[in-house]
Amino acid sequence: MASIKEIAKAAQVSCSTVSRALNHKKGVSTEVRDKIIKIAEDLSYFPHSGARSLVQNRAGVIGVIIPRTSEFAFQSPFYNHVLLGLSEMAGRHDYNLMLIINDSRSYTSFYYRHQVDGVIVVGNRINDERTIELAEKNVPAVIVPGFPEGEYQNLATVNSENFKSTHRAVSYLIGLGHRKIAFVLGSMSSKYSFERLEAYQKAFREHDLDYDPAYVAESDFTKTDAYRLMGELLDLDQPPTAVICINDTLTPGVLQQIFSRGLKIPQQISVVAIGCSDLLDLVLPPLTTVRVPAEAIGQTMARVLIQLIETGHCNKRHTVIPTDFIIRESTGPAIGQGG
User: Fold this and answer.
1) Residues 259-318: pLDDT tens digits?
2) I need a labelling partner for 329 at 20 to 30 A (CA). Which of 25, 291, 312, 339 fits?
3) Side by side, which strands form the sheet with 181-185?
4) Measured between alpha carbons, how far is residue 221 from residues 9, 39, 330 in Å?
5) Do 109 and 203 reside in the same domain of the chain?
6) For the sheet containing 156-160, what is the strand order?
7) Range of 29's domain?
8) 10 Å Cβ neighbour count for 71?
9) Beta bridge partners of 240
10) What is the Cα–Cα distance from 255 to 192, expressed in whole angstroms?
């Protein structure tokens, strides 16, 4: 591998000028900087990460914590898209990712052992003491989706537009005449679940309707559990005429149960999916979807954390990224159901 001396010789400048140019420091003209970068690329020069870490007193690593099983994390389109966004943004700023899945150790321990410069927690639980410890010890950290409003506000969060998008979806179904609207949620220890449930309840109240808790099902976020719960919902004396699935992992289980009974979508039951999976675009009929920008969530988390690492603060402590509500062919008017 080429050295700084070789680059300096080829560019006919000093080694210190090369160092400033490659580290984007002041004191180097744009013309000279571009020339040095071009020579470095031609000579296949790469900075020594260990030496740079010693100078900057940083590891150059971001810890990405997913408090789920490996099987669940790698099968979920949401986590895959988030990691894609994280990786892209981290790489752009010369940080590596350390992936930590279903680990029982304290999240702060990775920081205090100098293994990482900061921590990202994807899919945090509001009752996880290890996440709360990040806030209490002021570790550079960003979490998604975060905590209920008013709790641990010093911890940076990135979230999708959960409340607004779910409220819009439920209101849309009510407008189509649906009153028996099932909602297959995940664990209520997730902000995703309780925030979207609040939106579901508010939409009913705003239309002067009483919602029936019998149509709300709390799952363990797996396809198998979604299949079971959808079966129980369809076995009710008055089965739902519409169902909302909280994420990409649950939607296939719900659809499998519906199709196994020979029910037609949307003639006999309407379906709304919340998620980011491109695979669900292949379902027939095409699904009405609350599209979650998971890759943008990952990019934003990385950008905010890097700001915290390098400056000690971030421009925005709590970021909410808009979602899209895409109406397709899986939703239609409720049949034989009064207001």
Assistant:
1) 999 999 999 999 999 998 877 778 899 999 999 999 999 999 999 999 999 888 888 889
2) 339
3) 216-218, 181-185, 242-245, 270-275, 288-291, 324-326
4) 59, 51, 22
5) no
6) 96-101, 61-66, 118-122, 141-144, 156-160, 318-321
7) 4-47
8) 11
9) none
10) 21
